[in-house]
Amino acid sequence: MPSRNKPPPEPTAKPRGERLQKLLAAAGHGSRREIESWIEAGRVCVAGRTARLGDRALPADQITIDGKAVSLPAEQPARVLVYHKPEGELVTRSDPEGRPTVFSRLPPGRWVAVGRLDINSSGLLLLTDSGELANRLMHPRYEIEREYAVRVQGILKKEDLEKLTWGVELDDGRAAFERVEVADERAGRSANRWYRVVLREGRKREVRRLFEAVGARVSRLIRIRYGPIELPRDLAPGQWREVPNTVKLPKL
């Protein structure tokens, strides 16, 4: 089936550690403003070198204030949840109309959704307690694959499928699927047909709008994969599961 193959861009190197004032403030050694003044006064050292504003450090680095070593808690890995979003739930913290939201079903914590699924879509939703990780997983620069199972009313012609991978103009710019595959060839000439599609970005209602651009209407949309993480077959709608640290998320 039609596909587009292009290598992802070279990732930009991630800066080492956190800004020094942020790291020390988070550990309770003072406010960021106070610590910035200490750095400017030459009172803070990292690995024996006098620190300057803008320097970064890791919790494992040897840091001193006025010659005294300071202790920093070990950096904790970001937590990531897989949630099986059912249709009818919103990806928002509250809704003025009182409709159910995904956050009401999650464990305690400050969770950030990695992208969104509209109220009529279901499937895999990733959430994390790290805003930085969420932003990196969503950023178009990294072209992380999102895979969907899509039920479309009617049968698309070969030229329609080719157009969806070559690209079509939407109201917010050109868009295309990375791959489009017929999910069940046995469907024959049924009124509905399932497709599997892959995107490397996450614009609003992009899957639905792409199919609409070739005259097709999506009747069901299920996200089944985000990067290396797939929707577990045994995870029921409305349930969540924590992703073990052994799962390798993209090195961004």
Kindly summarize this structure in a few lines.
By secondary structure, the protein is α+β, with helices and mostly antiparallel strands.
Walkthrough of the structure:
The protein is of the alpha+beta class and 252 residues long. It has two domains: 18-69, Roll (Structural Genomics Hypothetical 15.5 Kd Protein In mrcA-pckA Intergenic Region, Chain A); 80-242, Pseudouridine synthase, CATH 3.30.2350.10. Helix content is 16%, strand content 28%. It contains five helices and 17 strands. It has helices at 20-26, 32-40, 131-138, 158-166, 206-213, and strands spanning 18-19, 44-46, 49-50, 56-57, 63-65, 68-69, 80-85, 112-114, 122-128, 146-153, 168-170, 173-175, 179-182, 192-199, 217-226, 229-230, 240-242. The strands form four sheets. Strands 7, 8, 9, 10, 13, 14, 15, 16 and 17 form a nine-stranded mixed beta sheet that branches. It is elongated and about 80 Å long. The chain starts with 17 loop residues before the first strand and ends in a 10-residue tail after the last strand. The model has no long low-confidence stretch (mean pLDDT 89).
Strand content is 25-35%
Q: Would you list the SSEs in sequence order as H and E?
A: EHHEEEEEEEEHEHEEEEHEEE
Q: Which CATH first-tier class of the largest domain would you pick? A: Alpha Beta
Q: Which consecutive residue ranges, at least 5 long each, have pLDDT under 50? A: none
Described by the principal axes of the CA atoms, the overall outline is elongated
Computed Rg: 23 Å
Distance between the termini: 30 Å
Major sheet characteristics? 9 strands, mixed
**Helix fraction?**
10-25%
